[in-house]
Write a structure and sequence with these properties.
mainly alpha
Length: 409
């Protein structure tokens, strides 16, 4: 969990850096950068201090905008690709720059930002402590992940690859700003005048939504660590409504790292934060899959048959598959630095690994804890019943048809 707090801590200023890069689409005056970032940070704190209801309602609004935008961009990209833009030019799949080395390195380098884009999906489980009917609602939310990945990620990547060349200079302007949205570039290239500004505006709300989620998640992670005596007790301080306001402020303070873009090129800062957050996310995935495998085999070792709500038709093979590949991706995180050496990029790409090992070993030595054998894992204590969490409807799922349908989904 300490690693996950570190992950969200680096992701918060990353999203703020992305926000500033998109603001520069309209205002390129660097003197205004601190003003935009400060306003963004204040809004972030206020929204998180209003409580989980405000957080949830705001995320519904932002998510609706993102869904409408994603669908519109995919359709619009296809229209442009088929010659429906103002220039009536048909654009079909433009591949990477010539050269086997360039293509291979381009694929490897693309893994890092792609992995970061997927990181954090599992953080939805953190809302279980404050959600109504968590066993029902969290499971329903997670079951939609695969469909969101296929439609919003894979479809978007295919469409972008059809309309924007990989060597377009606007994708990344070293020393100026982080990458613009490829969809914005696509519509600009097609001669569409107004739509790029609308896209950029919605993308700004997306960056705010992501940073808002990371502040919320980081505060709950820190609160949970404090409750378990793994962080200072002050972080358990709550308002009368149960809001862990001290933990919220602690997580929010990471946002001030975004002011680095005021004195440094945002492209450089953006890539630093992407590398830091991606590595932490990889380590988190290894921890999650390892934990699940211990849970799965621990139940079998103790002869416990889990309820259907805790089962997945792809497990434990999905976790084994992930653990096999993630170390490979960790090594690839900063592979481009060996072609064009940069000490700062190397540190940003791999510093998270020794930090995690230091935290893990330090915790084990300080608290003198050990890794329990499977036969001694506790699957009983402090687990609320279905009635206590309001998930009574799960008790009604008794028919074999319902069970089979649930397992297939």
């Amino acid at each position: 969990m300490q690693n996950y707090f570190y992950f969200v801590g680096t992701a918060i200023p990353l999203e703020l850096t992305a926000f500033y890069s998109m603001v520069r689409f309209w205002d390129t005056n660097p003197a205004h950068g601190a003003i935009y970032i400060a306003a963004f940070i204040v809004a972030l704190l206020l929204l998180n201090l209003f409580g989980v209801r405000w957080f949830g309602n705001s995320e519904i609004f932002f998510a609706s905008l993102k869904i409408i935008l994603a669908v519109g961009l995919i359709i619009g990209g296809l229209v442009i690709s088929l010659g429906g833009g103002p220039d009536h030019k048909i654009v079909l799949l433009i591949v990477l720059e010539p050269g086997a080395t360039g293509r291979f390195l381009g694929i490897l380098v693309a893994i890092t930002p792609a992995a970061f884009s997927l990181s954090g999906i599992e953080l939805i489980s953190i809302t279980a402590a404050e959600a109504q009917q968590p066993r029902t609602n969290i499971i329903k939310a997670m079951r939609t992940v695969i469909f969101r990945l296929i439609f919003f990620y894979i479809a978007s990547v295919i469409v972008v690859g059809m309309v924007v060349p990989s060597n377009n200079q606007a994708l990344l302007r070293p020393g100026a700003s982080a990458a613009q949205s490829p969809f914005v570039i696509a519509f600009q290239m097609a001669g569409v005048k107004v739509l790029p500004s609308i896209i950029n505006a919605v993308l700004i709300t997306s960056a705010f939504s992501a940073s808002n989620t990371f502040v919320f998640s980081g505060s709950r992670i820190l609160y949970g660590l404090a409750v378990q005596n793994k962080a200072p007790k002050i972080f358990t301080t709550c308002t009368r409504n149960g809001l862990p306001w001290v933990a919220v402020i602690a997580a929010w303070l990471f946002s001030f790292l975004a002011f680095m873009v005021v004195s440094t090129a945002s492209a450089t800062v953006f890539n630093w934060f992407v590398s830091l957050a991606t590595m932490a996310g990889f380590i988190g995935w290894i921890s999650l899959n390892t934990t699940y495998l211990r849970y799965y085999y621990g139940l079998r070792r103790q002869g416990i048959v889990p309820r259907g709500i805790y089962r997945s038709p792809l497990q434990p093979y999905a976790s084994i598959w992930a653990i096999f590949w993630i170390p490979f991706y960790i090594l690839l995180n900063g592979i481009s630095v060996f072609w064009d050496w940069s000490a700062s990029k190397f540190v940003a790409a791999y510093i998270s690994l020794p930090i995690f090992l230091l935290l893990f070993i330090g915790y084990k030595l300080w608290y003198k804890t050990k890794i329990l054998p499977l036969a001694e894992l506790d699957f009983v204590s402090n687990i609320p019943t279905l009635e206590e969490t309001g998930d009574e409807e799960l008790l009604l799922e008794k028919t074999s048809f319902a069970k089979k349908l649930r397992e297939l989904i």
